[in-house]
Write a structure and sequence with these properties.
Layout: H1 2-27, H2 33-43, H3 45-68
Length: 69
Amino acid sequence: MKFIITSFIMSQFKILLALALALAAAGAQSWTLQQCIDHAKLQNISIKQQRVSVAQAELDVSDAKAALC
């Protein structure tokens, strides 16, 4: 009996998951190549790390200039 209930719950879960994925796909928009590139640039972890490195280097330069005065 326990196996039947568990199996039923899993089948219901799979149906709900499939429905949710179908609804999400229906609401998805098409992107242009430029939109894809822009999104990739914003989300790329290497680019984010480089931006942080540049900001840190700028602070280091500022600190070094302040230390000379």
